[in-house]
Amino acid sequence: MTWTYASTDISTDLARVRLMIGDTDTNDQQLTDEELNFWIDNSAGTMFAAAKCCRSLAAEYARRVDKSIGPAQLSVSQRQKHYLDLAMQYEA
Fold first, then answer.
1. Rounded mean pLDDT of the chain?
2. Which helix (H) or strand (E) segment is 38 a member of?
3. How far is CA 11 from CA 18, 29, 74, 75, 85, in A?
């Protein structure tokens, strides 16, 4: 599986969709190139591909639970909501 992104070249659909969903941090990779290309190949344009990627990420985060240990909290539900909201924005 590969993951590529260069902010100096956003001429490809892959780079544009990755930018639109915010998956640009090599240290926090969300979707592989193969996954993005699947959604790009099965969507009517980059906006819908980005929306499908966001829904895919939301589904992934929905499988996880928020955790609290003492005063420390980890809220993955916020990430799920963010990606669902972003998907709806691109679908509109």
1. 93
2. helix 33-41
3. 12, 20, 36, 34, 26
